[in-house]
Amino acid sequence: MKKGRYGCFGGQYIPETLMNEVHRLERVYEEAKNDPAFQQELDRLNREYTGRPSLLYYAEKMTKDLGGPKIYLKREDLNHTGSHKINNVLGQALLAKRMGKTRLIAETGAGQHGVATATAAALFGMECEIFMGKEDTKRQALNVYRMELLGAKVHAVTSGTQTLKDAVNETFREWTRRVEDTHYVLGTVMGPHPFPEMVRDFQSIISREARAQILEKEGRLPSAVLACVGGGSNAMGMFYHFIPDAGVRLIGCEAGGKGVDTPLHAATITKGTTGVFHGMKSIFCQDEMGQIAPVYSISAGLDYPGIGPEHAYLHETGRAEYVPITDDEAVDAFEYLAKTEGIICAIESAHAVAQMKKMAKEFSKEDIVIICISGRGDKDVAAIARYKGVELYE
Amino acid sequence: MSKIHNAFAKGKAFIPFLTAGDPDALTTVALILAMAEAGADLIEIGIPFSDPMAEGPVIQEANIRALNAKTTTETVFSIVEEVRKQSQIPLIFLTYLNPVLSYGKDRFFARCQALGVDGILVPDLPFEERDELLEETKRYGVDLIYMVAPTSDDRIAHIAKEATGFLYVVSSLGVTGVRSEITTDVGSMVKKIRAVSDVPTAIGFGISTPKQAQDMAKVSDGAIVGSAIVRMIGEKGKDAIADVASYVCTMKDAIR
Fold first, then answer.
1. What is the CB neighbour count within 10 angstroms for residue A359?
2. Is B3 among the domain residues?
3. How many folded domains does chain B comprise?
4. Which of A111, A113, A124, B30 is disulfide-compatible with A85, CB 3.0–4.6 A?
């Protein structure tokens, strides 16, 4: 396969102004990958700052209640900053330092990636500016304050639909304005090469650990792994080391919003078509003219009209399956996991929990399934309360 | 050789930009004809896109206005069809890649050829990805126009060698939009181009005043102005035609 391509997907569709920078990033990343000192430093941060390895927890009550496979949860919600996003951010911040950058910029949807980037910037003593759709700054007000507390400047993006895709547009624009001292910490496995590969590598620690952990606990591989998919970084991380294990089903859970038969969803693989946007060839929700569609999900982190190119490829080749989960199903699963296991997960991760509930009967008791709990749900509590009709504000 | 060559044949070229369908298709036709009449040498027509990543706020808003007016790719072709009934001025499209892929590459460039669209400029299609459109643009005789930026360095010579139509020299970092000052040494960028190619060069991004256009045209073959014109259209809508024509006239005089 051509460098930076996954089948026909991937590539580098960005303005000329950024080309030399992206090529430089490619080179520096290649060097860093092969530099034991870089890996040691990243390992140390993962261990001592993030708190890795994250737990692989046997959800016994959920297993018994659903009467299907033995269910394990990969607890990325227990990471420092509360989600898997920190895995990628620490890697990219180290790279930025290696490149002599003094300023980090990033987009954020739910605010998890923004918080993680602001955290790394504080840790490395870098300037930090976060771009967040104005709509999302309202949905996730607490995370905005968190980022500011960490020393970041948060820009409320008022262009377009004022959500994640517009935040990405604005962060790319800012990068072209000030590329010399600034690194764009892309939050997911999307964008121009080398981002999809690099972010996947940093996130693949999830499946590297999970695979070893399940072999240690059970002595065999799972029948399936489940993860929610927006851009797809926790899913790519959860899938990656299981891709060669043909017996392991890889299941990505997309935001079905109000239903995939309505216009209010963000189910890219279920409803999208091939196109080029945000630096990559992939699958996007778009209209018949190639205009990027406004998308919707209760989850700000999944509210994105595209998906990383490697997911598009895993879908095309049939190696991974992608299913839509509605808002209602996700909220139901959010409450279910809280009541059954005492774990308040992110509304994003609840999409994967919902799929487990739906498909439990497809498995036998001998099967094992691992669900990636990509983040914790503290940030969502007020929004879920409002969804349920409780007038609660942070 | 396409008609783009003619734009640079009579001295320095003035190249105005506007977004098709802003505020509506009829006004776009009238604006293009008025600009041609006022002395424009080549006109760059933007196909509206939902997410114009390389544009500043002024042109972003024009894209939104055009899409709100239900402008489709088909509408843009019909605008060109109307213009071609009255003018043979060289025309190029500025478009993001996705609307072209969505329309169908073959169908898109066949329409361009039939209507006399001379070139295409795609801000999210860098030189390395040119194969995406190269075959179709060649087949239908439409010039694929490349860009070089202040960060391009060693890429400039590389890109200039393959340039067709003209080479778009981006004057500044960042996105499109009016700037009070252009600090990049564009002269030395053009020298790097000249060392390997005699393709015409035109400088864009940030130009709005006659003095800026004059300075830029002095070191290249032409000046491109977008946001300053689009802002007038944004402010006055259908009534912007006389102002835009007089502005184009002033700018053309300045670089002559």
1. 18
2. no
3. 1
4. A113
Q: Tell me whether residue A107 is one of the annotated catalytic residues.
A: yes
Q: Nearest 5 degrees, angle CA B238-CA B244-CA B245?
A: 110
Inter-chain touch B60–A159, beta carbons under 8 Å: yes
Residue B182: the pLDDT is 83
The mean pLDDT value of chain A amounts to 96
Would the ipTM clear 0.85, i.e. be above it? yes
A85 is catalytic: yes
User: Collapsing DSSP states into helix, strand and coil, what is residue B170?
Assistant: strand
- A282 vs A265: CA distance, rounded Å: 18
Type of residue numbered A79: N
Q: Are strands A127-133 and A153-157 parallel, antiparallel or unpaired?
A: parallel
- Domain range for residue B226? 13-255
Rounded-to-10 torsion of CA B224, B228, B230, B235: -170
Is residue B7 domain-resident?
Answer: no
Q: Which helix (H) or strand (E) holds A322?
A: strand A320-326
pLDDT tens digits, B158-192: 999 999 999 999 999 998 888 888 888 999 999 99
Q: Tell me the CATH number at B59.
A: 3.20.20.70
Determine whether A30 is an active site residue.
Answer: no
Q: Which domains does chain A have, with CATH numbers?
A: 5-46+84-199 (3.40.50.1100), 51-82+204-387 (3.40.50.1100)
Q: Which residues contact A313 (CB under 8 A, 6 or more apart)?
A: A6, A7, A9
Q: Which of A204, A207, A223, A374 is flagged as catalytic?
A: A374
The Cα B227–Cα B25 span in angstroms is: 19
Q: What is the dihedral of CA A347, A351, A352, A353, to 10 degrees?
A: 70
DSSP alpha helices (H): ranges in chain A? 16-33, 36-45, 60-66, 85-98, 112-124, 134-139, 141-149, 164-177, 195-203, 205-218, 233-239, 268-271, 309-316, 327-341, 347-359, 381-387
Mean pLDDT of chain B: 96
Exactly one of A74, A85, A271, A379 is catalytic; name it.
A85
Contact criterion met (CB < 8 Å) for B101 and A276: yes
**Test the A interface: residue of B73, B74, B98, B172 with most A CBs within 10 Å:** B98
d(CA B41, CA B61): 26
- pTM, 2 dp: 0.96
Residue B1 lies in a domain: no
Q: Distance (Å, rounded) from C-alpha B233 to C-alpha B214?
A: 23
A372 confidence band (pLDDT: 50, 70, 90): very high
